[in-house]
Amino acid sequence: MEIERKFTVRTLPVNLDSYPCRIIEQAYLNTDPVVRIRREDDSYYLTYKGKGLLAREEYNLPLNEESYYHLREKADGNIISKKRYVIPIEHPQFDPTYVSSKGNLIDQFSLCVELDIFEPPFATLIIAEVEFPDEETAEAFLPLDWFSQDVTNDPAYHNSNLSKVR
């Protein structure tokens, strides 16, 4: 199960180059249900995603390079390219009611921002995604100060929908 929230970004972190970065290219064989292929650096995957916005099923299967490029020729719409920076969240903040119900367990959370900086034709788009262990934690999470709009429930920000933009 993938449980994540998505945000637009107000400003980029000052020390962005100090974080690990992956180069991602992905294409969609189908958007309902979502069947995606992805090249992430030198790794290749076929992914099935179920329906949903905050939470949905996700299955990843490995591909080899030859299979990836063969399937890419069959993809519909835009091929999406982006740089993904992985930024640990040192001290995630949560709604006070949630904090009081979890107590010291909050200190055990290890959350990261996956910051996607898109290449053309989406070069101005920057999305921050945060994955969570469960929906309760996701809903209680307080966005970082450099985040802007919460677009979790806006399907227009799903990469599968971006692939269809002309």
Task: Give a structural overview.
Helix content is 15%, strand content 46%. The strands form two sheets. Strands 1, 2, 3, 4, 5, 6, 7, 9, 10 and 12 form a ten-stranded antiparallel sheet that branches. A two-stranded antiparallel ribbon has the order 8-11. The chain is α+β, with helices and mostly antiparallel strands and 166 residues long. The chain has one domain (2-162): Hypothetical Protein Pfu-838710-001. The mean pLDDT is 94. The protein starts with a strand and ends with a helix.
Derived structural class: alpha+beta
CATH architectural designation: Beta Barrel
Our measurement of the CA-to-CA distance between the termini, rounded to an integer number of angstroms, reads 30 Å
How many beta-strand segments? Answer: 12
Number of domains: 1
Helix content: 10-25%
Topology pattern, helix = H, strand = E: EEEEEEHEEHEEHEEH
Low-confidence stretches: none
Mean pLDDT: 94
CATH class categorisation: Mainly Beta
β-strand amount: over 45%
The fold-level CATH name is Hypothetical Protein Pfu-838710-001
What name goes with the CATH superfamily?
Hypothetical Protein Pfu-838710-001
The biggest beta sheet reads: 10 strands, antiparallel
The number of distinct helices, counting runs of at least 4 residues, comes to 4
Q: Compute the CA-based radius of gyration.
A: 17 Å
- The shape is globular
